[in-house]
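agent> fetching stored inputs for the ME8 docking request
agent> found them:
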Amino acid sequence: MVKKTFYITTAIDYPNGPPHIGHLYEKTIADALARWHRLKGEDVFFLTGTDEHGQKIYKTAKEKGLKPMQLIEKNVAIFKELCKKVNISNNRFIRTTEKEHEKVCQEIFLKLKANGDIYKDSYEGLYCTGCERYYTERELEEGMCPVHKKKPELVKEETYFFKMSKYQDKLLKHINDNPDFIQPESRRNEILNRLKEPLRDLSISRPVESLPWGVPVPGDKDHVLYVWLDALLNYISGIDYPGANFKKYWPANVHIIGKDILWFHTVIWPCELMSAGIKLPKTIQAHGFVNLGGEKLSKSRGITVDPIKLLDEYGTDPVRYFFLKEIPAGEDGNFSYEALVERSNSDLADVLGNLLQRVTVLTHKNFEGKIPKISKLEKIDEELIKESEILEKVDNLMQKYEWNRAVDKIWHFIRACNKYINDTEPWKLKEDKKRLGTVLYILIECLRIISIYIYPFIPETGEKVAKQIGQKIGTLKDVQFTEKTKGKMPQPEILFKKFEIKEEDPFTKVNLKVAEIIDIQDHPDADKLYVMQINLGKEKRQLVAGLKPYFKPEELKGKHIIVVTNLKPAKLKGIESNGMLLAAERKKKVAILQAPNSKPGAQVTVEGIEPGEGQITIKEFQLVQMTTKDKKARYKGKTLKTDSEEVIAEIEDNAKVL
Ligand code: ME8
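agent> prediction call returned; pasting tokens
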């Protein structure tokens, strides 16, 4: 019988820098899905890789004094190491600088051209290198790219255009006729809304003189293809278009991508395919973003975690489990070490690890590690066996790409096994070997079933669980409860060590107090700085603050501000500053944090955190990321307050407190 195929892809990553935890997240999701479909007996092809052309790579290499390929090789090696460390089962790692891929790009370009969909014209537009795309004036926020907050570059050049406008109606019809084409629903609506505006033709090349790094346009050595046109084609070149693999696996079942690149995948890509006469992928599944401390990842702002270090330190399966369980499919989520440790210690060590440990130790103690026979069932046994019948539910969730809910279903069953062991108390059944054997058999059989279910999510652990009960890992055909499992178990081993929470909350080091501004003078040697005298109740101090562009002295004098009192004194342009006042900034607006009704010297705290003692450095303080909401200053969602009031900041939400 010909096996059903399942073709799954991730986005291909820009190797202009090393990978981040967003990349790790996306690969983990795709891997869990790929492994699930393999367990179903399907013929799965799982593709990932790197997107190696375009201005972003070219510019970064230039800035570093490297050739593009030198920069790429270094980072691609790290991306490949990431794939290995996170234990993904990709069938291929495609690189868009491979000759075969470039050939496919040129072939498709010629197809679009033959179809009358390509013309040359001059183009003037605003290009953001970070996004590798043009923006219209209207799409910008205060003249800046809404994603990178940078001014796009004005590009005026002759380029080839793709008649995307020609496909608007066909695309709309496809999206309307195929509710699964764009998932989740909210993203689908977003695209449908944007498609209410007429589609503009797409500039799909760059002159070599402004960007000499890309796939040459066939028949025109002065142009290279637009990086996104090239990149999207990896999904077909990665399965050897137009060869046998392409015939076998295309159309893709799902492209797993992040929410920021939805337009490219759900509008540009389908139009390109329609013009080339190629079927459209079945589903484009957008996931949310991984944030850190509630903020967007940003290397330049130090909001980043090295995924390889993370995997080395915490192990592959705890990290995989965290991302699959903790971040709801399709939504943004937060990474923190505390949450990772908490998840691993509770769900993996306590819930799963303990169950395995108790069952294997008891089997060794009472049956020399041999799996006992099952005999007469009691009601409680039948109830647990019934609980093991989760295949349809888990499979449904996986079909709907709700992987985190699938994880929840599985752990619900593991918890039921723990409840069963607590209720049946097998350690008290030494005298009744028959009953003890039955209870242990049931638990072992449940563990065998569990080993299969958890395998796609935490593959190494799935294999370990199976091995610990003397079995080989099965497939989804084997998740039924049977009475036939036999075997001998090896000596029990601990499945997961518990982690200590190493990361101290950086706020615990900080000491904040209310101070009154009693005098303000201009700094003699700096345009933007004021020198202030403040009253901290029991003492007076001098601060230097960069508030001059935003406030006049009379707007500040007498205000009750918030000061970091235990910051190491520093000289700013020759004048000593003994502490730092807190202000919130957003979109170039600044507000100082205030506690107008509190006395100078009043302690400012956040619920559950004691004020810090001892001096801290500015670097340590910068780890504390405070924001604003509803005109209140907040840390991790909690307000900053004195014993009489909450600290205010007259500014819009999500301002950064510095
Ligand atoms: O966009 N959390 O590459 P990329 C979760 N080369 N996912 C994130 C993320 C975050 N914080 N940041 C990025 C590109 N991603 C193109 C793709 S596909 C033909 C070309 C996701 O390295 C992002 O949404 O910037 C994308 O799906 C993937 O990581 C690669 O991002």
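agent> quick read of the result: The pocket of ME8 is lined by residues 11-14, 22-23, 25-26, 51, 231-232, 234, 257-258, 260-261, 289-290, 297 (CB under 6 Å).
agent> awaiting further instructions
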